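If you are new to this repository, start here. Below is one unmodified record pulled from the training split, so you can see the exact layout before writing a loader.
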Amino acid sequence: MRVFVTGATGFIGFPIVKELIAAGHQVTGLARSEASGRKLLEAGAQVQVGTVDDLEGLRRGVSTSNGAIHTAFYHQLGHVPLGTRLRVFLGGAPRGIVPRFMGAAAATDRRAIETIAASLGKGSPLVATFGTLAMKPGRLATEDETYDQTPRAFGAIRAKNEDLLKEWAARGLRTSAIRLPPIVHGHTAFGLASLLIPIARKKKESAYVGDGMNRWPSVHHLDAAHLFRLAFENGPAGGTYHGVDEEDIPFRRIAEVIGRRLNVPVVSKSPEEAKKQFGFVGPAVPIDNPTSSKLTRERLGWKPTHMGLLADLEQTDVFSKV
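And here is the target side for that same chain:
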């Protein structure tokens, strides 16, 4: 099949591109520049230069494709168009910058999904990604549950776009939502844990909140890429899947490995102290997010095969580069 992939040069998107090509698909990848798109050409894909803000560009990319995988999302202010960036910075009190940024990123994501879906033919596959941190905390989340819809739930502003996929499934598209854990890892990057490493280095301590027994799930990015291909090829309309290998790693164990690798003490912080310790990522750190992928494995035959998070952290050389 001909597949249009957004975020195609990213840590998750690029392995997806290679997965698809290895399986015989023809891929056009969206890249932010010709320079970043060179590795797509080297991998055997075609390149379309543009961003997810360019809706006409998305329509053009989808017009020659049989389906799409959407992984692009604004995780950094530097990637946001200047006009949007100014609205984020100048749209209110400084403490509201992060919520305004997340709102702008989620709105861009929604427009992109809507545009891609409207450009696909009936029965075409569309796979998009969301986060497990939006699930109800404190209990094992399953694929058949919806995201946490309580007021101010973490990540819900983006997770609401899952509903858009359901709407398009009802209109005849073969949509799949893949929820990824806060740590998607692979030797050079570790999801939100990549932000914890420079914080620990700067503060000269690796921290957790309370007793540190809140649980985070993880997955290797190559296993995640394989799941995207399986959902694209075989997922029924309206399916929701969890790209989770390890479902419940205690946060304290992550902090301990970081502390050991940086040779800094591992310490507990109160919720109030954590706000200062972790900055904008602070609200996510104490979340208890155990997440099951049992139904995903049963329904798509997905079997993660790559190393787990703690082993990856123990052998990576990223600590010498941060």
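Two things worth knowing about this chain: The chain has a mean pLDDT of 93. The two ends are 40 Å apart (CA to CA).
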